[in-house]
Amino acid sequence: MWWVLAMACVFHVTGNVHCWFAEVRPDNPEAHLNVSQLISYWGYPSEEYEAITQDGYILKINRIPHGKTNGPHSGRRPVVFLQHGFLLTASSWISNLPNNSLGFLLADAGYDVWLGNSRGNIWSRKHLYLLPDSKEFWSFSYDEMAKYDLPAILDLINKETRQKKVYYVGHSQGTTIAFAAMSANPKVTERIKINFALAPISILNDLHGPTLLLAQLPATLFKLLFGEKEFLPNNFLVRFIGQDLCNREFFSSICDNFLLVLGGFNTINFNKSRVDIYLSQNPAGSSVQDLQHFLQTIRSKRFEIYDWGSPALNMKYYNQSTPLPYDTSKVKVPTAIWFGGKDLLSGPKDVKQLLSKLPNVIHQKLIPHYNHFDFVWGNDTYSQIYSEIIAILNHHLENSKRI
């Protein structure tokens, strides 16, 4: 799909066909802003931090310390940490209008909102001693995000707020990171009050769409196509497509349907006038190894740590010949889950299997018409999800005060 758009870009830049691509959508100024600027654009306080992981990655973390007003919670505001999905950025939580963006809604509801950026995306491409053009920089998957990134972010939040425990909200890979971390690290479990999982991904037996085709590629062809470093970087071409080409009549429907092809076919449930904002930072890049880890899960039909490809290499890294599974029955944190009936990546059958293993599910909801991206960009996310998250948070806080 991106190659089709790239060819069109060449024609556009070289001229003579500009008249084919008449503007049909006004250019949104937010499409040219970073995460911190997006927050400030709507009149919210914005802060930026860097979390340094044990293995040397430097992650940019954004914060909305309160809403436009002080909100209902006096004193220290309870912390909610939001972690985006695969190939996305923290902007996914604030790309809609404030009355339909979870980051802004939580801030206005009186919460201290922190937004993570996964290692390797456009805002977290720094390291203490590795350069992004090195193969070593990209030698990671969600294993490392669970083992190193999440603990480093929780430490940063604790340092800045003096609050050891947080509420966690994840979308897609953001849920994978949480489930992996809480399965393997009891100290992480102790620091999360409630785990909110949107379009959760653990096992991938009910997968459909283009990602399934990637899992069937021979290893040699896969390496030839994608290399061994970065997958879908946010470069000039991607930004041009998102900010310029997708606003033109000839390609507007292609860009709209591109999101549906990846996340699940559905009647369009997002604000079409904001597609340039959605695509301006996304895809944001990750490692090829991260993608391979998800494809491994498809082939093995198990939620497990990364397989290095041979018993000898697995022995080197894990002291055993096969990768260890992540045991989600160890996730004792109260967990609330929302999943979609039209989701090609987080299929209902897989989510139900996950639910059967989790010991402390406090809420579950299937939204029949939702695809994978509706959970962050859908027109009706407030009524379907966000209002329920805020209600659960407020209820938990009230109960905590009584104890």
Instruction: Write down the secondary-structure element order.
Output: HHEEEHEEHEHHEHHEHHHEHHEHEHH
Secondary structure category: alpha/beta
As a percent range, the share of helical residues equals 40-55%
Overall mean pLDDT stands at 88
Number of helices: 16
- The stretches of 5 or more residues where confidence is low (pLDDT under 50) are 1-22
Main beta-sheet annotation: 9 strands, mixed
How much β-strand is present in the residues? Answer: 5-15%
Kindly describe this structure.
The chain has 403 residues and is an alpha/beta fold. Helix content is 40%, strand content 14%. It has helices spanning 2-14, 35-41, 102-108, 142-161, 173-184, 186-189, 210-215, 219-226, 236-243, 249-263, 275-280, 288-300, 311-318, 348-357, 374-377, 381-402, and strands spanning 47-52, 57-64, 79-83, 112-115, 126-127, 166-171, 192-198, 230-231, 286-287, 335-340, 361-367. Strands 1, 2, 3, 4, 5, 6, 7, 10 and 11 form a nine-stranded mixed β-sheet that branches. A two-stranded antiparallel sheet has the order 8-9. The longest helix is centred in the last third of the chain and has 22 residues, at 381-402. The chain is globular and about 55 Å long. The N and C termini lie far apart (55 Å). Mean pLDDT is 88; it is low at 1-22.
